[in-house]
Amino acid sequence: MTLATFPASEPKPSWTRYFTFNTDAKVIGIQYIVLAFFFFLVGGLLAMIIRGELITPEADLVDRTVYNGIYTMHGTVMLFLFVFPVLNGLNNLLIPTMIGAPDMAFPRLNAVAFWLVPIFGVLLMSSFFVPGGPAYSGWWSYPPVSIQNPLGHLVSGQGLWLTAVALSGVSSIMGAVNFVTTIIRMRAPGMGWFRMPVFCWTALAAQSLQLIGLPSLTGGAIMLLMDLVAGTSFYDPAGGGDPVLYQHFFWFYSHPAVYVIILPVFGIFSELFPVYSRKPLFGYVYVAVASFIIVGLGLVVWVHHMFPSGVPEWMRNLFMFTTMLIAVPTGVKVFAWLGTLWRGKIRLTTPMLFCLGGLFNFVFAGVTGIMLATVPIDIHVSNTYFVVGHFHYVIYGAAVLGIFAAIYHWFPKFTGRMPYEGLGKVHFLLTFVGANLNFLPMHPLGLMGMPRRVSSYDPEFTFWNVIASLGAFLLGVSVIPFLLNMVSSWVRGPRATHNPWNAIGLEWLLPSPPAEDNFGEHVPVVLSRPYGYGSGEPLVEHQAEIEAALIQAEQLESAR
Amino acid sequence: MTTAYPTPTPAPEGHHAEGHESHNLTGFIIFLCSESVIFLAFFSGYALLKTSALDWLPPGVDGLEWQMPLINSIVLVSSSGTIYLAERAMAKGSLWGFRAFWLLTMALGAYFLYGQAVEWSSLKFGFTSGTFGGTFYLLTGFHGLHVATGVFLMTLMLIKSFIPGNYKGGEQGVQATSLFWHFVDVIWIILFLLIYVWQRS
Ligand code: HEM
Ligand SMILES: [Cu+2]
């Protein structure tokens, strides 16, 4: 064995690099995450206005048309400017370090994909200031509402919306090509497919869905734009077109899109449960492979969003069946996590609390999802608050909580500082209670028949709406401890060691924060599957020496 | 100040040390797979609109001429052959053979675009003539855009081949362009069957 020498402390890179066209995946990852949280606040502010309006039955806070614009922008901002970017941020941080690559396969493409996000973000925000206001046809932008242009201006809120979504698609495709290529081509020596961390499996699955699904939305959106500005009639029945065709294009992507969101969160659960219960991931192979079964099935369930849209009977039945089938691979994962937790030495750290809360909410959302997949139930509650409750349980309750878990867990790795546990736990409590208080009442409301996308409602719905609004304000408050924690720990939190959680994985064999090219030339050879908790089996060749060198460097650092 | 850091056994081949160049083709193939879904969406939209239409053809239009597009198809399909010959020539180390067949392919591609333009200008319906006109121009236009992109990429590769000593990393660009060209060709065959052969509803 040879001994290479490394400078232990390179000159500290300046923080201004986060504002430049930098090609280091770790910089880009943080750029994505910070920008995404900026838009989380924007989308959150819009949500506060929505819930403020709904705290009373009358439409008294904002004008009805303005209300339409607000929920449309809320959904669009949250999905395209918060969830997708924040997940791409995690992909950027985690994929290269987890597989031992120095960077992404195409670093410049990576930076271009990132910088498109603020560009289309500004474009979308600017639609607040054009005559007629922002798009108001909901985040799904169904025709015929979305092909109306009453003011007749070339630049309309809807046109800007479509352009922004198209750019978001371009950025996501660039990202997906990059992530998939990186995972396929750049894994550390010895890291066969079944030695790859589950997060990378789920990222690969999710990004494959982007590649297959997004072009359908792009194609459909191009045709919508043509109808809006060029006078074609693809979706306009007056000219022989068919509005349901758009729904097919839209949901062929947008159902898989929910798996683009939730699969990496499954990955996060699968990474974190073993760490905080000190047990190997139960059924690793099944959990990994189930991701791709979800990809396959996830591509053939989209019509469950269109049960009331006049689709033929056979189609409804077929898609009801495939939708229910998807519960099988999903259930496999849930049981694998429960099996991992079973009799584990559970450590209730902040990330673990977020994971447990996320899992709880996810199971609840799965139950309402199966209900929605049943055609008669769906026809009854479609376009009511029941649907809104269901998908917020998935997206906020499970996905956002999972994302917070990931941020607390990997924060020390990429900033070199420890987050504060106390603030983290306050953040968790507010988030978990707030989310359930906010989204649980939506189910009874939907069953009682309260339609979604309205600013006024029958007074009989008041009780549950007041509770939901209180939950929403609690969620609003919950970002305060989070932001406080992030900023103050990053600035002056305690120094993090290379492996503060005692976790197993290539990323934990790097200093915190890692050098620009991660392992550089010295990529360790992977010997075993991840998650060997309790087995004492080494993950890589020369593991003891690598760890000793890291500890020695840390001691020298702190002695200075 | 420096610290000792253990080096593992030398990385086996196939590892990232060989540089980024080798990932380009992988990335490009992945991109093409994704791109084909847009066409799939347009094709299925076309089929759906056509089968459910009451009056598919706009008034005064009875079907499409197919002779000119057939000639165009033959031109495009044979250009897939010439680009293959160009690649073969390059593999054998004959740079001039490569350039000759490459240029021939470009000429065939340009002829296809010319034929498409002639056809368009002779048609009696426009982009906004119902869903028939809309889908016709959308499909042929989007495909034509890809043909133009292919010719542009070939021009770049041709120029690159004249830069001295540049033919080390050039193969990947040539391979990718040729792959793209075959892709455009296959799309055209489906498009031809769908639009020109399947005329009666
Ligand atoms: C057990 C798995 C799931 C099942 C069976 C399921 C089923 C459904 C069904 C049938 C609907 C349509 C309701 C309607 O429009 O009438 C729906 C809506 C929705 N679901 Fe799920 N779902 C599942 C998981 C997810 C996941 C993982 C996400 C996101 C990460 C998600 C997000 C959504 C969204 C955003 C909507 C609302 C779309 C809209 O109409 O605006 N779902 N779900
Ligand atoms: Cu769905």
Describe the structure.
The complex is a heterodimer of chains A (560) and B (201). Chain A is mainly alpha-helical. Chain A has a single domain, classed as Up-down Bundle (Cytochrome C Oxidase, Chain A). In chain A, 64% of the residues lie in helices and 1% in strands. Chain A contains 16 helices and one strand. In chain A, α6 runs antiparallel to α10 and α10 runs parallel beside α13. Chain A starts with a strand and ends with a helix. Chain B is mostly helical. Chain B has a domain of 135 residues: Cytochrome c oxidase, subunit III, four-helix bundle (Four Helix Bundle (Hemerythrin (Met), subunit A)), CATH 1.20.120. Chain B is built from five helices and one strand. In chain B, α1 packs antiparallel against α4, α2 packs antiparallel against α5 and α3 packs antiparallel against α4. The longest helix of chain B has 33 residues. Chain B is elongated. The N terminus of chain B is likely disordered. At the A-B interface, β1, α4, α5, α6 and α16 of A face β1, α1 and α4 of B. Protoporphyrin IX containing FE binds next to α6, α9, α10 and α12 of chain A.
Short description:
Chain A has helices at 25-53, 64-99, 107-126, 157-185, 198-229, 243-277, 284-298, 313-325, 327-341, 350-373, 375-381, 385-415, 421-439, 442-448, 462-492, 543-559; one strand at residues 2-7. With 560 residues, chain A is mainly alpha-helical. Chain A has a single domain (24-559), classed as Up-down Bundle (Cytochrome C Oxidase, Chain A).
Characteristic terms for this protein:
heterodimer; A: 560 residues; mainly alpha; Cytochrome C Oxidase, Chain A; 1% strand; disordered N terminus; B: 201 residues; Four Helix Bundle (Hemerythrin (Met), subunit A); elongated; binds protoporphyrin IX containing FE; binds copper (II) ion
